[in-house]
């Protein structure tokens, strides 16, 4: 399949509920395509799952069964006020719950930024559920200080100036998504958060586990496609390159810029599609078991 070809695929919105000591939380997802070549795509920090619509359709058009998930605190999933609800490990456990819900024994798990870290965490806590990994701009050792500087003001604003967060939310909600460019709509959705859940979200990520440590990462045996960007202080290419060097089955792909996969996605869509299809080339015969 070339980058210019388009194949229409089915799209379905679904939901699942995850239980915890806090109670019951609702997660929403979208399925593209059908079959047993499962792929799960995870969004970046505070972003909605539809940021991966284009890639999901490209993969589904090539024969994959793709699911984009809004983890807790993202998009149309629940947004509790409890910081304990938000951590990379919690998000990874939600991916495993999604696979159980779908009856998928394994999936290629991919994500961007925070989603990349969650994909790595899924491979660390449930390696038998991961067929492969697509990791775009992970936030690892070289990026933590910049991430703290970038997002600490967000936490402070949500705590001490909640009216500013609520006011911004009211302004962005008034903008019809159909009249603005697609990525502008994604940006508007990213800031559509109430101050309480927003503060809990950032607090939970700051003080929780942000990614598997090196000792755990080095044990990841699944094939991995690592995509890094030049001139991106929050997601240094050095982190992505080092990750690819640390793991025996990882391949590094350098993007032209942080905007390439956003504005000119054809090349990287094709790279990711080839990787995913290769992960599923030799399928096993394990049965799928869908929960009632």
UniProtKB/TrEMBL annotation:
Q: Which residues form the AB hydrolase-1 domain?
A: 38-142
Name the UniProt record assigns to this protein: Pimeloyl-ACP methyl ester carboxylesterase
Q: Which domain of life is it from?
A: Bacteria
Question: What is any Pfam family matched here?
Answer: Abhydrolase_1
Q: Which organism is it from?
A: Nocardioides thalensis
Q: Which PANTHER family match?
A: AB HYDROLASE-1 DOMAIN-CONTAINING PROTEIN (PTHR43433:SF5), HYDROLASE, ALPHA/BETA FOLD FAMILY PROTEIN (PTHR43433)
- Per UniProt, what is one GO molecular function of this protein? catalytic activity
